[in-house]
């Protein structure tokens, strides 16, 4: 069947995510030192991360709603130190601003320009990056984030919702992401084609999920545009 749309993952597909999160957590920690020092004195980045992991195990919602997870964590910690929970809104705004200061891979901007001339584009992500703040929202017809939708990849529902929004059948869509399990297999199990964005030149045989076979493999958006 003719390919009518391409859906893209975001983190580690369009930009490296680990340095972004580390930077955002450092910026937040500095803000805590300046505005709520009692919290910063008792909670390092590592201690906040440990407590966040405890919250994830306690509430299934936090498996997909990463915004609510961080906001709930900050609200609880602030309240424990006699700080109004509403201040968590300010803290989250600081974190989100830093979270959206991503360094796009070099091929992303020209690659998106080349792709949108050939096919309709959309995104499906488990994160909460703001594509408007990043400056690439205009390339996409549809963008679905797990924290707003109510479930996360590899749940088929989030893939199918994107297909419905783009008014295409799942079999007419290629989903491209860096994670073999969440992105490739998740898309395939929802009836989409699953493409692997393999920027590091990894071998499937060396990965944990060696049984997964992508429908296509790419090292950049340039390769994806050529493939289409």
Automatic annotation (TrEMBL):
InterPro entries attached to this UniProt entry: HAD-like_hydrolase, HAD-like_sf, HAD-SF_hydro_IA, HAD_sf
Q: Which GO terms describe its molecular function?
A: hydrolase activity
Q: Which domain of life is it from?
A: Bacteria
Q: Does the keyword Transport apply?
A: no
**Which cofactors are reported in the record for this sequence?**
Mg(2+)
SUPFAM superfamilies for the chain: HAD-like
Gene3D superfamilies (alphabetical): 1.20.120.1600, HAD superfamily/HAD-like
Q: Is Hydrolase found in the keyword set?
A: yes
Q: Which UniProt keywords apply?
A: Hydrolase, Magnesium
- Which PANTHER family does the UniProt record give? 5-AMINO-6-(5-PHOSPHO-D-RIBITYLAMINO)URACIL PHOSPHATASE YIGB, N-ACYLNEURAMINATE-9-PHOSPHATASE
Q: What is this protein called?
A: HAD family hydrolase
Which species does the entry assign this protein to?
Answer: Undibacterium hunanense
